[in-house]
Amino acid sequence: MDTTNESAHVLVVDDEGAIRYSVSKTLQRVGYNVAEAASGEEALESIRNQRYDVILTDIRMPGITGVELLKRIKDLAPDAIVILMTGYASLGTAVEALRLGAHDYLIKPSSSQDIRQSVSRGVERARNLKRRRALLDAIRSNVSELSRSDADAIKAIFDDGEDDDEPLRIEEPVMESANNNMTLGPLTIYPGRYQIAVGDRPIDLTPTEFDLLLYLAAHRGRVVSCHELVREVRGYTVDEAEAREVIRPHVSNLRRKLKKAGQDADLIVNVRGIGYRLSEQN
After folding, report:
1. Burial 7-18 (b: 16+ CB within 10 A, else e)
2. N or C: more exposed end of the chain, with fewer CB within 10 A?
3. What is the pLDDT of residue 178?
4. What is the pLDDT of residues 19-44, one digit of tens each?
5. Between helices 91-99 and 66-76, what is the axis angle to 10°?
6. Half-sphere exposure (CA, 13 Å, Cβ side) for 15?
7. Is 1.10.10.10 the CATH classification of the domain at 175-278?
8. What is the pLDDT of residue 264?
9. 99-107, long-range: CB within 8 Å, 24+ apart, which pairs?
10. pTM of the full structure
11. Gap between the Cα atoms of 259 and 263, Å rounded
């Protein structure tokens, strides 16, 4: 049993009891917490009461179909990863499922290995989404705290106890949320799109590059070790020497993309022998 799977919750949805049982046992054997639902309606009720990392659902079911369930899951639990299963494969259905945000598409009967691999990838993606959300929350929180602290200090300096004709106006923080977009110095960050922009020039990032930038932004003011970056951004642990080899090409690619977009300042500073930090000039 893989103890790393014990905290992951999986919901198996299928109107055929034998298939539910088989898929559930396949996942339970490697340590997942597995619940079952015999219909789309039952699945929705379960999703309202429990957070699931991954949901496997049959497509053809009486009542709410798997595709309709997928649409509703995106409203109820947007971070849940959905894997669709079907015994009636068609290219049109697969394309529609992926377009609606399905993580994967399994043809029944699927081997135990295929099921476990698909769920493992789904759990990893769910954890990455959770880490990314935490990074965004940390960035907003840090900037908000700094903003309030700066505002209090400025008010203390200028408040002489007299009523002024004009109230003191404090500028908005450098980094703010607007339609879920944020600014960080010269950069605009587009959460969920793996994209940033320098001025009006968009830059497409890989998920690792995007998460790396967000993590450094959330921990501005200190040097972050390569070991910590691999653990928090990639989701596994290696020693510092190997971590440097893992992180270095991602930092190099990120710098190259920034330079190509006209970002001259070295946004990511390499502190030799320790790790990386975000430039205080940005």
Report:
1. ebbbbbbbbeee
2. N
3. 43
4. 888 899 989 989 999 999 999 999 99
5. 10
6. 13
7. yes
8. 57
9. 100/67, 100/70, 100/71, 100/74, 101/70, 101/74, 102/70, 103/54, 106/56
10. 0.53
11. 5
pLDDT (tens digit per residue) in 58-115: 988 999 988 899 889 988 888 889 999 887 766 566 666 666 778 888 887 788 888 9
Output the six-digit token pair for 179. Answer: 């339609």
Cα 104 from Cα 33, distance rounded (Å)? 20
Task: Give the residue range(s) of CATH 1.10.10.10 domains in the chain.
Answer: 175-278
Beta bridge partners of 34: 10
Tokens of 173: 């923080």
Residue keyed to tokens 């014990």: 6
Q: Regarding the domain delimited by 3-125, which CATH topology (the fold level of the hierarchy) does it fall under?
A: Rossmann fold (3.40.50)
**Pairing label, strands 224-225, 275-278:** antiparallel
Per the DSSP assignment, residues forming a β-bridge with 83 are 56, 104
Cα gap 103→87, rounded to integer Å: 18
Helices 207-218 and 240-260, packing angle to 10 deg = 100
Q: How many helices (H) and strands (E) does the chain have?
A: 8, 13
Rounded-to-10 torsion of CA 282, 237, 123, 89:
100
CATH 3.40.50.2300: which residues of the chain?
3-125
